[in-house]
């Protein structure tokens, strides 16, 4: 179990403009991701060090986005003005989470221009919608070289998260100490004043720390 990525739902001016603001602040160009046909969303990728990345995601006007929990989550966060939607943990086996949550993981995919395909299984988006402090879980499949963190060289590091919520609640959700996936990322837990979830993320860049 390890921290994989953070997701930022685009703001009212759309995917390109939102991504440009973030990439400019961090000093690294974003990479075009692609469409998630099963979820009715599309994304842009900002690769980070340590096998992490930042995803900026936008909901599409597509029936899939109304049915898929991931599409619903992106739509709701963008409708509220955009911002940090959640964080994701990569695991080797989703079966324990499927058993505990009482439902099956769902497949995800997106294709590259050259025809290669990024594929994965994920679970936990409904939990994130209900309680945005908790991560969703993902298992990557296929060629490890296609992991979004490998899209381009990067010297920007995901340093810390500020989350409105509690370590105890996330530990309960994960079924093991929250420190396990966050061993290289520090977290400041603050009491929720309204909706729980990611309040800010700090990155180490060539220009020094940048908090978004």
What portion of residues belong to β-strands? 35-45%
In total, the number of strands is 12
Main beta sheet: 8 strands, mixed
Q: What radius of gyration results from the CA coordinates?
A: 16 Å
Strand order across the largest sheet:
2-3-4-1-5-8-7-6
Query: Helices and strands: which structural class?
Result: alpha+beta
> pLDDT average, as an integer?
94
The residue fraction in helices comes out at 10-25%
Taking the alpha carbons of the first and last residues, their distance comes to 25 Å
Overview of this protein structure:
Residues 3-174 form the Glyoxalase-like domain. It comes from Arthrobacter cryoconiti. By secondary structure, the protein is an alpha+beta fold. Helix content is 23%, strand content 38%. It contains six helices and twelve strands. The chain has helices at 15-26, 63-67, 69-79, 95-101, 125-130, 167-174, and strands at 2-9, 31-36, 41-47, 53-59, 83-90, 106-111, 117-123, 136-141, 157-164, 186-190, 197-205, 208-211. An eight-stranded mixed β-sheet has the order 2-3-4-1-5-8-7-6. A four-stranded mixed β-sheet has the order 10-9-11-12, with no helix packed on it. β6 and β7 (117-123) form a beta hairpin. The longest helix is centred in the N-terminal third of the chain and has 12 residues, at 15-26. The radius of gyration is 16 Å and the shape is globular. It starts with a strand and ends with a strand. The mean pLDDT is 94.
């Amino acid at each position: 179990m390890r921290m994989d990525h953070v997701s930022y739902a685009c703001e009212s001016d759309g995917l390109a403009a939102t991504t440009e603001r973030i990439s400019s602040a961090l000093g690294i160009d974003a990479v075009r991701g692609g469409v998630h046909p099963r979820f009715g969303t599309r994304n842009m990728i900002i690769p980070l060090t340590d096998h992490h990345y930042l995803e900026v995601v936008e909901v599409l006007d597509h029936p899939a986005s109304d049915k898929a929990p991931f599409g619903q989550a992106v739509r709701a966060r963008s409708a509220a003005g955009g911002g940090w939607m959640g964080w994701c943990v990569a695991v080797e086996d989703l079966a324990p989470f499927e058993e505990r949550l009482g439902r099956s993981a769902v497949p995800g995919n997106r294709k590259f221009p050259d025809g290669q395909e990024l594929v994965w299984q994920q679970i936990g988006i409904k939990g994130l919608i209900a309680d945005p402090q908790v991560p969703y879980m993902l298992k990557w499949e296929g060629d490890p070289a296609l992991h979004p963190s490998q899209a381009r060289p990067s010297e920007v590091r995901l340093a810390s998260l500020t989350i409105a919520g509690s370590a105890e609640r996330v530990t309960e959700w994960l079924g093991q100490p929250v420190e396990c996936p966050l061993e290289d990322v520090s977290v400041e837990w603050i009491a929720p004043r309204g909706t729980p979830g990611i309040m800010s993320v700090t990155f180490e860049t060539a220009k020094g720390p940048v908090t978004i």
